[in-house]
Amino acid sequence: MPQLNPSPWFFIMITSWLTYTLIIQPKLLSFLSTNPPSNKTSTTPRTTPWTWPWT
């Protein structure tokens, strides 16, 4: 059963995870958020009921 042989895919998996963890992830985490969260309180808009012309 060749799928039980870890030799072909295990090295590729470890290499890709190390590349992601050591190279790509720090570069992605260094970006600043373009829309930082704010502490503004949300206000609910004041709505008026709609008057239907046929009632």
From TrEMBL:
One of its GO terms (cellular component) is mitochondrial membrane. Keywords: ATP synthesis, CF(0), Hydrogen ion transport, Ion transport, Membrane, Mitochondrion, Transmembrane, Transmembrane helix, Transport. GO terms for biological process: proton motive force-driven ATP synthesis. InterPro entries: ATP8_metazoa, ATPase_protein_8. Residues 36-55 are annotated as: Disordered. It comes from the Eukaryota. The chain crosses the membrane at residues 6-24. It is a single-pass membrane protein. Pfam families: ATP-synt_8. Its main location: mitochondrion. GO terms for molecular function: proton transmembrane transporter activity. It is found in: Mitochondrion membrane. Belongs to the ATPase protein 8 family. This is ATP synthase complex subunit 8. It comes from Notiomystis cincta. The gene is ATP8.
